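Hey, I was hoping to borrow your eyes for a little while. For a while now I've been wondering how a particular protein folds. The fold is given in discrete form, as structure tokens running alongside the sequence. Could you read through the record and tell me how the tokens relate to the sequence? Take your time with it, there's no hurry, and the full record follows here:
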Amino acid sequence: MKLYSHNFNDGDKMPERHVFNGMGYQGDNLSPHLAWDEVPAGTKSFVITCFDPDAPTGSGWWHWGVANLPADTRVLPQGAGSGTADLPTGSVQTRTDFGSSGYGGAAPPKGESHRYVFTVYALDVDHLEVDQQSSGALLGFNVHFHKLDSASITAVYS
């Protein structure tokens, strides 16, 4: 699989429009455009996550989770996780470590540089038993048992 964005390339600095609005930041908190291809045969749904492995928590920080994206989905427009563009029917955004569902942008502690890993997973089931209150860890646990393939891109912000 391959994952790409019109908003940044792998390894680029995250644009301000995708930075959190809060915790000392004044970004637009817009989820980025994401698109993927080279999907494996047998794919029945997709999951998208954004994870910061550098957060000083001992367990990273979940910034976004979208489950139950239909198998024919190949793109999420900018803002789909922020309510300014539509998500496909039947998909669900899980709870981030900010405490609510939907996209939560970059917000590293001042003076630190963090990686924001966006990943698309192709799954062998059309539906995961998760909802808006499910944690990123629970989403990841479910993905683990149904993953056919995945692809990631990383943005950096400090």
In short: Residues 95 and 135 are 5 Å apart (CA to CA). DSSP finds one helix and ten strands in the chain.
